[in-house]
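Let us work through a complete example step by step.
Step 1: write down the sequence.
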Amino acid sequence: MLLVDTFPNLLDAAVIVSLLTLTFLEIVLGIDNIIFISIVSNKLPEEQQPKARLIGLFLAMLFRIALLFTITWIIQLTNPLFHIPFIKEHNGEPIGLSVKDLILLFGGLFLIAKSVSEINHKLEIEEETQTGVKKKATSFVSVIIQILLIDAIFSIDSILTAVGLVENVWIMIMAVIISITIMMIFASPVSKFINRNPSLQILALSFLVVIGVLLIAEAFHQHINKGYIYTAMAFGLSVELLNMRLRRNAAKVKLNDSEMKDENQN
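Step 2: predict the structure and record it as C-alpha cells.
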C-alpha cells in the first residue's frame, strides 16, 4: 500500500537505503533525459543554453512530483483499454494496451523521429559550413516544448519504477528532488563535453534511437533488460573516448612533424 500521509523516519537505516537506491536509479533513468536536453538546447544561442537546460530539468522535477501526488491514477494507467487480437501475449492471450503502453508507444516513436531528425540536422550543419547557407534558428519556446514532451515520456517510466521499489510517496519525492538537483549540477559540463565532440553527439543520438525502440517494445509488453542497453552505451562511449584520444595524439604528431619541417626549411 502506498503511503502519502506518513512522513518517513530519515534516521531509519531502511529508509536511507531505499532513498539512496531510488535516487541512484532516478539518475540512471535520467541520463537519457540529460542527453536529449543537451542536444536540443545546443541549437540555441550559447548564452541561452544553460537557461534552457535548467528550465527543462526544473519542469521535469515539478512534473514528476505532480505525478507522484496522483500516484493512484498513475497505477491505474496499466489497466488495458483495448486488446489487439493479432498480437499475442506470452500466455497466448491477445495483448492489451493501456494508457501507459500508448504513452510509451507514442513516446518511443517521438524519440526515434526526433533523434533521426537531430542526426539529419547535424549533417545539415556540416553542409552549411561548406556552402555558407544558414538555416533558420530554433526558438527558445520550441526547445522548451520539446524538452517538456520528452520529460513527460521519461517521467511515466521513472514514476512506475519508483512505485515498484518503495511504498512511501515522500521517499519518492525526495529521491526525485535529489536526483534532479544532481542532474542540474552536472548538466552543464556534460552538455559542453557532448557539444564539443560531434562524434559523441551522433553516438548519443544513435542510443536515443535504441531507447525509442526499447520504449516501443515495452509498449507491446516485450520486456528487455535495460542493463543491456546501458552496458552497450558504456562500451560505445569507451570506444569513442579511445578514438578521441587517438585522434588527438595523431593531431599532435602531425603538428610536431609540421613544426620540424618548418624548422628544417628555415
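Step 3: interpret the result. The mean pLDDT is 75.
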